[in-house]
Design a protein that fits this description.
With 212 residues, the protein is of the alpha/beta class. The chain has helices spanning 17-30, 37-41, 48-58, 65-83, 95-104, 118-125, 148-157, 171-179, 190-193, 208-211, and strands at residues 4-7, 108-112, 133-135, 164-168, 183-187, 198-200. Bound molecules: 1,6-di-O-phosphono-alpha-D-glucopyranose and magnesium ion (MG).
Length: 212
């Protein structure tokens, strides 16, 4: 029986990818190269510093570690300026209803995100009270596909991995869930997330039957 659900943030609960994109694109343009929406797909679920490395490789640019830190900080400041304007209207369809359903059924809820801004985002969306545990980019040392983020979530909830279901929109996230011995529901397209136990279009397509 499913005892806990662990949610990724970007791409599952909210579409923050569009704000990451604007901020990265601005940074790229300032360095003299373009950054496309297609390029942005490669950054989904990836940590901030790894995202920057990918961006710089696209522009064929080399920077020192110190310069990289400054660039990452600059990007995050831009990103935050968009994030701080978000509100509950940006929650993806069906999310709140599904969280309510889980609460009613006594199923525990945790967040497992690569983002260091996850707490801020949940606050802006007014969803913080649903989450019994929040494991974000400030609490993990190994990025997805390493299962650390989800294993820490399960541990914080006191639930065995085999009794957890992970909701993920990125392939690396699906791999992380499976590596942790958890069930996984992919949010998005079957061709990218085929390894998940089930793939749905969004949380609005979820119900208790699909969970078991
Ligand atoms: C999210 C996004 C990634 C982003 C990462 C780190 O992951 O999908 O594109 O690079 O967080 O974000 P930040 O710069 O805010 O620390 P997730 O795991 O929520 O999908
Ligand atoms: Mg994601």
């Amino acid at each position: 029986k499913v005892k806990a659900c662990l949610f990724d943030l970007d791409g599952v609960i909210v579409d923050t990818a569009k704000y990451h994109y604007i901020a990265w694109k601005e940074l790229a343009n300032n360095m003299g190269f373009d950054f496309t929406l297609e390029d942005n797909e490669r950054l989904k679920g990836v940590s901030r510093m790894t995202s920057l490395d990918i961006l710089l490789s696209i522009g064929n640019i080399e920077k020192s570690e110190e310069e990289k830190l400054a660039l990452a900080t600059l990007k995050n400041e831009k990103y935050l300026s968009y994030i701080l304007k978000m509100g509950p209207e940006e929650i993806l369809p069906g999310t709140r209803d599904f969280l309510e359903l889980l609460k009613k059924e006594g199923i525990k809820i945790a967040l497992g995100s690569a983002s260091k801004n996850a707490m801020t985002i949940l606050e802006r969306l007014e969803l913080t009270p649903y989450f019994e545990a929040i494991i974000d980019g400030t609490k993990v040392s190994k990025a997805k596909p390493d299962p650390e983020v989800f294993l820490k979530g399960a541990e914080a909830l006191g639930v065995a991995p085999m009794d957890c279901v992970v909701f993920e929109d990125a392939e690396a996230g699906v791999d992380a869930a499976l590596a942790g011995g958890m069930k996984c529901v992919g949010i998005g397209k079957e061709d990218v997330l085929g390894k998940a136990h089930l793939v749905v279009e969004g949380l609005h397509k979820m119900d208790m039957q699909k969970l078991s």
